[in-house]
Amino acid sequence: MKSFTKKKIHKSLLLLFGLTLLSAGCSNSSNSSGNNESASSPASDEAAAADFSYPMAGNAELTFMNEKLGGTPERLPIDDEYEKRTGIKIKQLGGTPMTDQKFSLMLASGELPDIFLNTWLQYPGGPDKAVEQGYILKLNDLMDKYAPNLKRTLEEHPEIDKMIKTDDGTYYAFPFIRSEAGRVYGGPIIRKDWLDELKLTVPETIDEWHTVLTAFKEKKKASAPVTFRTMFLGERTGGFAGAFGVMGNFYVNDGKVVYGYLEPGYKDYLKTMAQWYKEGLIDKDFASIDAATVDKKMTSNESGATIGWQFYIESYNSAVQETDKNASFVAAPYPAAAKGQTPEFGQLDNAYAGTSSAAISATTKNPEAAMRWLDYAYTPEGSLLNTFGIEGTTYTMENGKAKYTDLVVNNPEGLGSDQVMLKYSHGTNFPMIQQDNDLPAKFAQTSEAIDIWKKTNHESHLLPPITPTAEESDEMSSIMNDINALVKETELKIILGTEPVETYDKYDQQRKDMGIERALEIQQAAYERYMKR
């Protein structure tokens, strides 16, 4: 079998990548257990690197669990290709979706997969605690021996390196790093053909949104002019709250960490949402509906607007145009307070948001194989595979550039390009450095959405992936568990009209009594430590 990391890479192919991912490897190729405490010098590790090449010898087998994965995982072509190239067989574990409670029970059982994804930044006590408790391995020494590609990537990109370690320098997981273009992927979506019919333009301000939704209700007879799930109220995205200069959760204002729910503008936002709900502009069922119900309402003329992810646009257009060729969903900008202003918040992730971080179990019998399998994603060949799929199947190389085949561009089964690539690549939510794949979209509106949604001031407010100490994290969890529950309860009561907006001040004081100011102190201290890394 060919040695993929030693394969000569044409210079023009390297230009394909936004990151300089050089091929390398280290240690021997045997299927050893890899004693983490074995003595070795950096020089000996580097010397051994020249002796390693993929596929790894020894027929290693590992178990892998995705975060919150439900059901029996489908074996996909990308899985077979990874096994062939790395020489490492992966058994993916499924079952019921992994709730926080089930995750805790799994840890307590001691029956852990070799590799498992989680948002370790949200682990009680933080990633340092997970290492200290003996659930996952500290990867520093293992990276020196078995992950030269990730190590080199971090050396060449210190801004990424800063994100994926704790304050004391502990590396705890292989990260999923978003590309610059991939950091924005959600926002308002609206029925453009309805706007054209009503001679209205795409709304840009909160007042224009009120006008449009009123017209959808009165003239299009939409039973739920705008629908969305509660996750879009103002926590996952700025939603409509951005027009009031606020967003839920923690963020930064001029170097100071603030909690959006305490800011004066949040009360004004809730007052407006309560009024819209009373007027019948917001889906009366929004507090309890799931994603499938939102999709149904958006494609059956019950709703004309929502807040969601980019791929919703293509999905909705495909559905509605089967019966109405003129129907069209487009992205709308995040609303501003007034015409010409830029909203403070939209949707924006850090390059490393903590999600899809692959840690290695402290109980694994083969840490070397786990490291090798994960490190493959950071080689040029692995990055090309994760981005463009399998050469000859989903793409061919022409003049040093990847060109998609008809399987992707003109799929014989009518599948969208993103649906095809889900089988043959790892575009997102996999431990890797994401590359821009320039996938052809079935609808131009899908491609245009990102440029529309990214026009906010969100970057200046983004809290980086800070890591409070284990003690601080425990204290944060103790404080915020109750406060988060109170916040969600308060929001719904005010919007649904079961309590007047004036009671918000009472809850504001209650959050302070519950310790929000101490939580802010912890966040501020962690933020300042991060900035000094």
From TrEMBL:
Signal peptide: 1-24
PROSITE patterns (UniProt xref): PROKAR_LIPOPROTEIN
Superkingdom of origin organism: Bacteria
Entry keyword Signal: yes
Lineage: Bacteria, Bacillati, Bacillota, Bacilli, Bacillales
Protein keywords: Cell membrane, Lipoprotein, Membrane, Palmitate, Signal
Protein's UniProt name: ABC transporter substrate-binding protein
UniProt-listed PANTHER family: ARABINOSE-BINDING PROTEIN-RELATED (PTHR43649), POLYGALACTURONAN_RHAMNOGALACTURONAN-BINDING PROTEIN YTCQ (PTHR43649:SF33)
